[in-house]
Amino acid sequence: MRQVPNKYLIIGNGRIARHLCHYFSLLKIKDYSKWDRSQPLARLHELATGATHILLAIKDSAIEPFIDEHLADIAPCDHIVILNTAFDAVKKSRNAESVKGIEAAIKSFDAAHPQLNAAGRRQVAGLLKIVDTLRASVKTGDEVAAAARTKELGQGLHTLKTSLPMATKVHFSGSLVTKKAWGAHPLMTFGNQVYTLDKYLAIPFVVDEKAPPFRELLPGIHNQHVRLSAQQKAKYHAACVMAGNFSCILWQKLFDTLQGEFGFPPNIADMYLKQQTENLLTDYKTALTGPLARGDIETIEKNLKALSGDPFKAVYESFVKAYASSQTKLREKAS
Predict the structure, then answer these.
(1) Which among 101, 187, 224, 228 is least buried, having the fewest CB atoms inside 10 angstroms?
(2) Other residues' Cβ atoms within 10 Å of the Cβ of residue 314
(3) What is this structure's pTM?
(4) Edge-to-edge, what's the strand order for the sheet holding 182-186?
(5) What is the mean pLDDT for each group of 10 consecutive residues in the chain (335 residues)?
């Protein structure tokens, strides 16, 4: 059985889509195309027809509505479109020409799908037999028999079409759980600039627990991957957001304060950021320093007083409270 070549369609025009396209080019994955809303919908249908993998690199809230509106009825290959068109002609007018057209469409489908298993081959052979009886009914002018054979033909075509594998749909949301597409969340932050191949290869993917094997989910991509249950996904993503996004906001706050309030160049804190990151990577459990780690209540109170009127005072207070609570739980667990 000959393996069907993988054909990717990447949907979206944001950072994830841009990075995916660049990663594919670095991996020399050539059989992929890209669509976004700047292109006609007809182009989307053209690209999606026959795609083996559709990658939805769009915002979380748009994924399910987009699938329902634009991808629910996409044919698994171009030859299904040809079959549908030929069968519509038979239903519209049962004559020698339309019968010849559906026969040619079935034979074309058969020739284009050498990977069909024995059941598929029998299905195709059965359809051609129905076409033969339909041709005989049309020739003798037996409308009742011709209508019955047309109905049989429609049922057989439906069985054949539904037996073909539909495109594997993959989204990259860290929080969405849906039956409409599999989740494969890259545990990475994506900037405006594309990355090197080594950096892309090092990105781990967090995959839905019940998703197909990774080599089938994203063929040609060999990144490290782990699996996560649907019940754990929301908490996983919340932790990612707090660590990545919230820490970014805090560092932006520091850089803005250094420059805006004190007149320092913001890059004066670069070494601090780099060392903090290095400490976390070396041993995240011992990387925390400062008044919280020391239990220095006096310094904490001075910090809070200095932040009077600053919206980040509430952030500082919430961290103090959350840290104290987490330490209490650790002590209880250890005892």
Answers:
(1) 224
(2) 11
(3) 0.79
(4) 32-35, 8-11, 53-56, 168-171, 182-186, 205-208, 225-228
(5) 70 97 96 96 92 96 96 82 93 95 94 82 93 95 95 92 85 96 97 97 98 96 97 96 96 97 95 97 96 96 97 97 94 86
Return the structure tokens found at 276. Answer: 């903090």
DSSP E strands in 234-305: the ranges are: none
Q: How many residues does the chain have?
A: 335
Residues 190, 19 contacting (CB under 8 angstroms): yes
Residue 175 · residue 234 · CB < 8 Å: yes
Q: Can you give the pLDDT at residue 20?
A: 98
CATH number at residue 211: 3.40.50.720
295: left (phi over 0), alpha (psi -120 to 50) or beta: left
pLDDT of residue 112: 83
Phi/psi zone of residue 263: left (φ > 0), alpha (ψ -120 to 50 degrees), beta? left
State how far the Cα of 143 lies from the Cα of 153, in Å rounded to an integer. Answer: 15
- Rg of the chain in Å (alpha carbons): 29
Give the count of domains, the chain: 3
Residue 191 resides in a domain = yes
Domain span at residue 136 reads: 78-163
What is the DSSP track for 114-170?
TT--HHHHHHHHHHHHHHHHHHHHHHHT-HHHHHHHHHHHHHHHHHHHHHSPPPEEE
* Cβ neighbour number for residue 221 with a 10 Å cutoff: 19
Cα(335)–Cα(330) distance, integer angstroms: 9
Domain-located, residue 42: yes
Return the residue matching tokens 């932006």.
252
